[in-house]
Amino acid sequence: MGKRIVILGAGSGGLVCSHVLRKKLNSSHEIVVVDRQTHFIFQPSLLWLLVGMRRAAHIQRPLSFLQKKGINYINSEVRHVDFDQKEVHLISTKLKYDYLVISLGASLHPEKIPGLRDSGHNLYEINGADNARKNLELFKGGKIAVIVCATPYKCPPAPYEASMLLSSYFNKKKIRAEIELLTPEPAPVGTAGAHVSERIVSLIQERGVSFMPKHQISFVDSSTREVSFSNGKKSRYEIIVYIPPHGLPSVLNNPSLLTKNGWVKTNSRTMETDIENVYAVGDATEIILPVGKPLPKAGAVAKLEAIAVADNIASNILGKPPKSSYDGSSVCFVETGEGRAGLIKGNFYAEPAPKVKLKEPSMFLHWGKILFERSWFYKYL
Ligand SMILES: Cc1cc2nc3c(=O)[nH]c(=O)nc-3n(C[C@H](O)[C@H](O)[C@H](O)COP(=O)(O)OP(=O)(O)OC[C@H]3O[C@@H](n4cnc5c(N)ncnc54)[C@H](O)[C@@H]3O)c2cc1C
User: Residue 228 above 90 pLDDT?
Assistant: First the structure.
């Protein structure tokens, strides 16, 4: 008898999982993807949107395309999951599942920092990045802040990339901008190791960006755009670009599913949760590494996890032993401006510590990121 696999979220993890399943299972098995968005947004390109290298329309595609590939896409908010009844509650219907894959990403909470939403631009949302771009076009000089509000956040290199792209953008326009990067972290991309952190600090400093670690934003006076930090620093900025606090999508708030830090708990290799036939991938999950730090939240991780999950669900349905597992590897381009990019690549499950390297920036790697963007749209939408 045909099975129904329901995938919650049509982001990086959900799209990959649905495609791999569709390839492996015949049409007697139904693959359903639910997402409240009508469009998939390629999030790495938000950085290019910020500095005018893309327009908003270029970095998104309608999810309705999935229908043509034999994947049943439902545009709805997921309201509740009843794990006992194996049922997902949507706005106007309920959906039974045989297998469930949770790929709802992380929710964003700028409202947690008083005054922030009215004073700054959320780099992690398409409207925020696009409004920042419009303001940057009018900017005549002064101070710009790139602020990380809290950890963990997805794509740990992204704020550093944003600051370097901004520096390159103003160099080209010959406008004097003082760019500050303020973060509660002691160092960038800490899980990758000190050698990667140190090189990223030197890369941003070489581009004239002031790095201010251990700066926890407290609130913003929206009438003056003065930002207050918990260490007493106060500073006024012409433009504020921020990475908001992240959290678990509220629909997943079920103690039987969660780690003590409030993310979805999974087996680090098979991505199985503690609930039978329920898997989770991507930013909603938390995997603590042997070094005691969490596995970074990244699209590359979500993708590899989703492939392992899809392989194993298909094997299970086809009566074969499940053999796939996520091995801890990840790869991420690091845009450094002036048409160049570096590449962070390695294995986060290596023991005793992650084995991760940063390849030096080159034009070749920047082109690699462009190809990466194109291949996403070509393969998945
Ligand atoms: C600026 C930026 C740059 C980045 N650069 C890179 C990079 O270079 N390399 C890299 O590997 N990663 C990068 N990332 C991170 C990457 O995009 C994410 O880690 C990845 O998308 C996570 O995949 P996911 O499937 O877990 O979640 P997402 O891709 O965020 O998808 C979650 C989906 O769930 C949906 N959803 C959530 N709640 C509900 C609900 N209740 N009902 C219905 N639908 C819901 C959302 O609409 C969304 O479509 C970047 C991210 C940003 C913001």
Answer: yes
Ligand 1: distance of its center to the CA of 69 in Å? 22
Percentage of residues in the chain having pLDDT higher than 70:
100
Q: Phi, psi at residue 316, to the nearest 5°?
A: -55, -45
Superfamily assignment of 4-106+248-327 in CATH? FAD/NAD(P)-binding domain (3.50.50.60)
Which residue CA neighbors atom 25 of ligand 1 most closely?
13
Q: Find out whether the beta carbon of 36 lies less than 6 Å from any atom of ligand 1.
A: yes
8 Å CB contact between 311 and 274 = no
Q: Which letter does DSSP use for residue 186 in this model? A: S
Whether 294 and 152 have beta carbons less than 8 Å apart is answered as yes
302 in ligand 1 pocket by Cβ < 6 Å? yes
- The topology (CATH level 3) of 108-245 is FAD/NAD(P)-binding domain (3.50.50)
Q: 94-96 and 87-90 as β-strands: parallel, antiparallel, unpaired?
A: antiparallel
The answer to whether the CB of 13 is under 6 A from ligand 1 is yes
The residue type of 157 is P
pTM more than 0.85: yes
Question: 12 CB less than 6 Å from ligand 1?
Answer: yes
